[in-house]
Amino acid sequence: MILQGRANGSSFAYRSELRHAKRIVVKLGSAVVTRGDECGLALGRLASIVEQVAMLQNQGREMMIVTSGAVAFGKQRLRHEILLSQSVRQALHSGHNQLKDMALPVLEARACAAAGQSGLMALYEAMFTQYSTCTAQILVTNLDFHNDDKRQNLNSTLRELLRMNIVPIINTNDAVVSAPEPNSDLQGVNVISIKDNDSLAARLAVEMKADLLIALSDVEGLYDSPPGTDDAKLIDIFYPGDQQSITFGTKSRVGLGGMEAKVKAAVWALQSGTSVVIANGTHPKVTGHVITDIVEGKKVGTFFTEIKPAGPTVEQQTEVARSCGRTLASLHPGQRGEIICQLAELLTERKEEILAANKMDMDLAINAAALLKRLSLSPSKLNSLAIGLRQIAVAAQDSVGRVLRRTRVAHNLVLEQITVPIGVLLVIFEARPDCLPQVSALAIASGNALLLKGGKEAANTNRVLHQITQEALSMHGVTDAVQLVSTREEVEDLCRLDKMIDLIIPRGSSQLVREIQRAAKGIPVLGHSEGICHVYIDTEADIDKVIKIVRDSKCDYPAACNSMETLLIHRDVLRTPLFDQIIDMLRTEQTCSR
């Protein structure tokens, strides 16, 4: 992979671009580095983070770590020393080794930091050595950034370390640093006060022109209200202009900063050209790959961008579809049939608009015969689609609420098995725009909400077909029951929405099906296996039927997934007039390669 870094000094606009980040700052908050008792380090968590940083470093990236933990490490060490000292004194005083309850004094943070810095750095060095990666420690204070000479020296030192493939580990010098001043996070656009490791990481990332700042904390990311409240929702993409809509809670259980401090630092870094992601570094299920997932562009934490999202997030689309889907399921079967019939009518009435959009996709598509065949729509294909939709409308009359089985369990107690909607379906399909109205009609008939993720090759056609589908749905007030996912969502990210999607249906190649089955996290996948698309010609076969069947199974629509793949011929048919007729027909249709 070629690591290009950010272009023209601007931050990355989309998550998918993060994989190009070359210079990365990883900020480890106190809640990430320390144990739950705030005395000592979370060694297993720290080891997994070190492994990810070392792996990215070995890929050719330039990694820097801004770490907390010196105070917690020193507190553990000093408590041990105090307990040992008190036990010795008490043993000498009492004349025996019986220990009484001993009260520990309150430990001063600067002393803890002084006692813990060397041990923390030794631990990092030992862990990185396992991956043949060298580290260097740098302690800074606010003055190191405000004094031009010191700032230039710091910049020069960091660049030289990065040039030598060394991972700098930076921390505030808490043994001598002054107490933070309240409300001094920002002092103008070009300056940020170093009051905690959030502001330090932001200032360092901007100073070193880092491509990406990853801030790990003990929450999943940025929420629109304090985490833990009933209506709190995780924000996937944060645009600084929406900051006034956020309600911040209290600071974290350890450390100096809270989410408000993180957001201020993140916005400052973003405006200076560094992309930022805030994510959870403490969750045992994701800690082992959270950093690499972010760099790969996966949907983890909150991504800060200066590009305002063009539309609703996929989570918002899913919520709207689920709510509207309940109304769709409650409609009378005849009403659902009317929606499908209206969709069929619109396909023929608006065919010029559909074909114009399809021509745009065809003009942009690569010159591959199979792709163009799948992508292409025609008046006859739209007419065939309309006929098929009307057939689905008839079948919709008993799709929902049909009694499949009735069992009398006891007197006045009857057990019934009744068909009900599944919920929210995610259908992923490749460059086949005709799939959209077909799947939409089936979802409407069965009373299910629907998310559609189509191939980008058919983006224009899909957009028009979706508009027509929603127009048909509007006749009974369920416009939003079918949603088209048109954002830059990776399929793998969609497959992780196990709390919002009830069933995934991939329509396409066997490779697509396998990828979806592998990526789905806790969501059932209705896959399909590869069919055996063979035609066999026996010695007793009727000549006229043979020619018609072979032509129809292969030549009418070669790009179809169920078109003939193999023509099996009885050996006695070889070198006969029938065989010659078949070969001539296939050559005429240009589907015979040998």
From TrEMBL:
UniProt key word Transport: no
Any idea which GO molecular function terms this record carries? ATP binding; glutamate 5-kinase activity; glutamate-5-semialdehyde dehydrogenase activity
Record key words, sorted? Amino-acid biosynthesis, ATP-binding, Kinase, Multifunctional enzyme, NADP, Nucleotide-binding, Oxidoreductase, Proline biosynthesis, Transferase
Q: Which Pfam families match?
A: AA_kinase (PF00696), Aldedh (PF00171)
Q: GO terms for CC? A: mitochondrion
Aspartate/glutamate/uridylate kinase domain mapped to chain residues: 22-280
Q: Which PROSITE patterns match?
A: GLUTAMATE_5_KINASE (PS00902)
BP GO annotations:
amino acid biosynthetic process
Give the family, as the similarity comment puts it: In the N-terminal section; belongs to the glutamate 5-kinase family. In the C-terminal section; belongs to the gamma-glutamyl phosphate reductase family.
Give the matching PANTHER family: DELTA-1-PYRROLINE-5-CARBOXYLATE SYNTHASE, GLUTAMATE SEMIALDEHYDE DEHYDROGENASE
Protein name, entry field: Aldehyde dehydrogenase 18 family, member A1
Q: Which organism is it from?
A: Takifugu rubripes (Japanese pufferfish)
* Gene (UniProt): aldh18a1
